[in-house]
């Protein structure tokens, strides 16, 4: 099994496991093909079985011919993209189809189509950071030249895409803030349900839902964990809701075609899910990776260092919002912030402490909030990379007693021992080592920027083919305000006393960061009310486990 990056950038991307069970669509597809039943023979006519038959092709149409009858046109067997996504025969075969369907050529065809539509592009902050680093490497700045910033680059990309026919270009940070608010609400709902002993309620630990590679893997390999995955939509899909319900209609009366630019090929899979389509209208019509956006910009002779009119103008809506936490969205920090605020409100004059514990590598780090008396108030983790994800799955199975169908007979909840072995309340899960800044669709370093081969121990953590120093540069470029960076650096071991994250938590509870969060929350609440997002459950989704295939055709000899 392999996540999407293996399809296009195999030497530079992360592999889900070392198993080589990729099934190419149309080559070794195990889904049974159901064709319409042939019409019965006319009355009195006996149809005898053929001992010999021939298949002929005439102008693209297939015909069967035999000695007993004239040629019969054959029905075309069709396997749709939804069939691929609903099949457990493989994890990635549908992605080959998706990469062809969601591409630069597709976007250009839609732009050239005669229909009157509003074109909206949403660009992820991780994509902007990757492009900033790549362009800065190709264009070393002099001492007199200002460095390229995300804000300037976003304005210049906007101008270039508007020349191609786009009407609105923005980043996804405001959509992400809406997703984080919904994430916090969902966590409070789950925690209250656990405290009240509500049966059949969504469960804790709550697992992040923004990574489509992780969701695809969970649905097909560990459906027993689906009740623990947050129902909150990812920033990509929330940006689709905003584009279709707010940004597009506010500009002009026309159907909206929405393009999302993401750091990951698996986002193409996410956009194609049936859950993100209503009345035949998708929230996201096409997903381009960071590298594909770069290729599209090259066709316009794009110069990232050429200023454009209006660069310093105030944006029409919130953009480039710097959420505290991690470069993968700050999901864990948002939950930490919620628990911190509630505990401090209930215990005036006191504050909990925060401890960090690295599990094998900084890509798997525990965060524990403790009361002054040493009791565990909250336990969470950041878990990046599939190798760590496998360990996380086993740990959650032990803590909850959840087991996959094939292991249900052995499923049982284990007895917990010491306080340090408290169960998780929340985990920020991402499939790529280093998180979203290291997505398979990000810009790759040029040959002259690649560091020497990494030590063997780094390979063991799932970083094969990835230049960690380049990823660190993208991580650094992501943080416009480094004071909000609460996660440990990818290349440095975190402080066991969590001085950095604890400082950010204090800042989020009071001071300038607190005021900034309150201001953005007010804007988000206004949009939620205007679009009735909460009442219509527009920020939530569902998941569907995929039963293992028992078809004998799935076996390869």
Low-confidence runs of at least 5 consecutive residues: 4-28, 408-419, 456-462, 490-494
Secondary structure tally: strands? 14
Which term fits the overall shape? globular
- The Cα radius of gyration reads 26 Å
The proportion of residues in beta strands is 5-15%
**Sheet with the most strands?**
5 strands, mixed
Average predicted confidence as pLDDT? 81
Q: Report strand order across the widest sheet.
A: 6-14-13-12-11
Structural class: alpha/beta
Write structural notes for this entry.
The chain has about 550 residues and is α/β, with parallel strands linked by helices. It is built from 17 helices and 14 strands. The protein has helices at about 5-10, 80-85, 95-100, 105-110, 125-140, 150-165, 175-195, 210-220, 235-250, 265-270, 290-300, 330-345, 385-400, 455-460, 470-480, 500-510, 510-530, and strands at about 55-60, 60-65, 70-75, 120-125, 170, 205, 255-260, 275-280, 280, 285-290, 355-360, 360-370, 375-385, 425-430. It has a five-stranded mixed β-sheet with strand order 6-14-13-12-11, with helices on both faces. A four-stranded parallel β-sheet has the order 5-4-7-10, with helices on both faces. A three-stranded antiparallel β-sheet has the order 1-2-3, with no helix packed on it. β8 (about 275-280) and β9 form a beta hairpin. α5 packs across α15, α7 packs across α12 and α7 (about 175-195) packs across α17. The model is unreliable at about 5-30, about 410-420, about 455-460 and about 490-495 (pLDDT under 50).
